[in-house]
Write a structure and sequence with these properties.
heterodimer, A: two-stranded antiparallel ribbon, B: Rossmann fold, Alpha-Beta Plaits, 6-stranded mixed β-sheet
Chain lengths: 280, 311
């Protein structure tokens, strides 16, 4: 029955116009970035690497599809939480507002099963959205700009990754980015269990991200103990996959912490939804 | 722990609190298999809350509720596989077609061939030909019909209908009544029907429960309860004002009144009707017509007047 419920949820997401906003937004944003870099990418690269040009001689094409893909990921992973929350924050509360939750909850399916299917649908949607971004970043960019070694600026300085290593790292980075974005999805679905309108959970999710990000960036001793445990601290963990050597220990910690968030958020959602009186 | 029975519905001392407000206050009633129970009460009596508790949309604060002798606490899915409901207004996914909506709910109900079953029910509720139209294009009446279809998808034994006639035009009300009668008489389903359209309830109900302020005022078979009430007699007589004056001067003083059509109406016991007619004719009045009514509406109004606070 869980698979049936997941299928139903997927059918609904597919049929809802709102679900395509994210894809349209990503396509437009990527198009803008690609156009900008195609027109003025060389001067952008020169500006970024100006401090290194006296000590380094660059041979070959630094502005290539892999670098553009990396830039796209870096820019858009920041915007993806809003696009994810826009759909996942509506999964329970939107149905409560529409009145369709009544129809679903009077079917011979457990409330927990139904809610888990919504968390499942949120995972599928997040994955597909990320896949679309990946398609744009890793396939379209190399098609336009060609491929080459990837130059990445890190705390250690400029790192050059051979072209042959880049694609596997992109795939792994998408895995870590999914873990972070699914935490956002879980947060908005959980908020959705408390509300009877769509706006509340979406605004609540974005507000939480903003507050946590602020706490994570403020250099205050009080927050030092909290910071490592905020999911927002690990939202950019995917970037570590482009370091050499890859800090697997840090990445594992990030993944475990994000997974712990899933468990807690889903647990809170199930507990709340199981006891919720459906009054709409 | 109260022992469950084999009644289709058995509510024992049901309570539902919303904060400090008690919406349902120790409500008890039973519904036996094969009947159509009219579930009546004024606005705010606790009908909708009770009906939501019957399908586990709302959890009781106290009391016991058994459906088919089972409790939601331990057999939620088994119970819901035997119950279909239309609670308040029929809501659907407006961006899906009528058939897609039904198919989706049929799958959620574990129906083996969702498409076939959905098409059958579209025909049953008179929406054949509109299967592929988006629900957003449906009128309220069409949505009510679709609402009835969705609650029958898994061929339930008990059908719970909360105000199924709301917003329907006169023909829609007749069609809805016929569909409910079909469910009961042809398909043998047990129906719990809440409605403010008392004439519709009267036409189909075999049993009645009247609640007020969250408590049961009366329960019993419709026939028995209505036979206990006084008959309302409407007499079409010549010179009605004089006839009324005569009656008021005699043994029926204060019992009669003239309605807006200048007809004489009186509340009488069944055996008194021929006596009144004879009395009038003996006194020179022409009696053109006698109509004996025993309407649920009269009974219901009188019952609530007698039990305004339902102590």
């Amino acid at each position: 029955m869980w698979w049936t419920a997941l299928r139903n949820e997927s059918v609904k997401i597919l049929a809802k116009p709102r679900s395509y906003l994210g894809f349209v937004a990503i396509t437009l944003l990527v198009a803008v970035i690609l156009l900008a870099l195609a027109l003025d990418g060389r001067s952008y690269i020169e500006f970024v690497t100006s401090s290194l040009q006296q000590s380094l001689t660059v041979e070959g094409q630094m502005l290539n599809g892999y670098l553009v893909g990396f830039i796209i990921l870096q820019m858009l992973v920041v915007h993806l939480p809003l696009l994810v929350a826009l759909v996942t924050g509506d999964l329970v509360s939107g149905e409560a507002a529409m009145g369709t939750l009544r129809n679903l909850l009077t079917r011979p399916l457990s409330r927990r099963g139904l809610l888990l299917s919504k968390y499942g649908a949120a995972a599928v949607y997040t994955l597909v959205l990320l896949f679309w971004l990946g398609l744009m970043a890793v396939l379209v960019s190399p098609w336009i700009f060609g491929v080459g070694d990837l130059a990445v600026l890190s705390n250690e300085g400029l790192q050059i990754l051979p072209a042959s290593e880049v694609m596997p790292r992109f795939f792994q980075a998408f895995g870590v980015a999914f873990a972070a974005l699914y935490t956002v999805a879980c947060l908005s679905v959980t908020f959705s269990c408390f509300a009877d309108n769509s706006i509340g959970p979406i605004v609540g999710t974005m507000a939480t991200i903003m507050v946590f990000t602020l706490v994570g960036t403020l250099d205050v001793a009080l927050f030092d103990h909290i910071r490592p445990f905020l999911f927002t601290t690990h939202m950019a963990a995917w970037r570590s996959l482009f370091l050499d050597p890859i800090p697997w220990g840090d990445i594992l910690f990030s993944m475990l912490l994000l997974a712990a968030h899933w468990v807690v958020l889903i647990g809170v959602g199930l507990w709340t939804f199981d006891r919720k009186d459906i009054l709409t | 722990m109260i022992k469950p029975s084999l009644d289709v519905v058995k509510a024992v001392g049901l309570v539902k609190d919303y904060g400090s407000f008690r919406a349902v206050d120790g409500l008890s009633f039973t519904l036996q298999a094969g009947g159509v129970m009219g579930f009546l009460g004024p606005n705010g009596a606790g009908k909708s809350t009770t009906m939501r508790m019957l399908v586990d949309l709302i959890r009781p604060s106290g009391g016991e509720l058994f459906l088919f002798g089972l409790s939601f606490r331990t057999h939620r899915q088994t119970i819901l596989s035997r119950v279909g409901c239309l609670i308040e207004k029929p809501d659907f996914y407006k961006y899906l077609s009528a058939l897609q909506n039904l198919e989706l709910l049929a799958r959620a109900s574990g129906v083996s061939n969702p498409k076939k079953r959905s098409e059958e029910l579209m025909e049953f509720v008179g929406l054949k030909g509109r299967e592929n139209d988006k629900v957003s294009s449906f009128s309220h009446g069409m949505r009510q019909r679709l609402g009835l279809a969705q609650c029958l998808l898994h061929d339930p034994d008990l059908v719970v209908l909360d105000e199924p006639g709301t917003g329907l035009d006169p023909q829609g009300l007749v069609d809805m009544r016929e569909m409910i009668q079909n469910l009961h008489q042809v398909q043998g389903k047990t129906v719990l029907l809440s409605s403010h359209h008392l004439a519709e309830v009267e036409a189909v109900a075999t049993d009645l429960v009247v609640i007020n302020k969250g408590r049961c005022v009366v329960q019993g078979s419709a026939q028995t309860l209505l036979s206990q009430s006084e008959r309302q007699i409407r007499l079409t007589v010549g010179r009605p004002k004089e006839a009324l004056a005569l009656l008021n001067a005699g043994p029926w003083a204060g019992g009669g009144r003239l309605n807006e059509n200048e007809e004489l109406t009186m509340a009488l016991g069944r055996e008194e009707v021929p006596t009144v007619v004879q009395f009038l004719t003996q006194n020179g009045f022409e009696v053109y017509a006698v109509e004996s009514r025993q309407k649920l509406e009269d009974y219901y109004r009188k019952l609530l007047q007698q039990n305004p606070h339902q102590a």
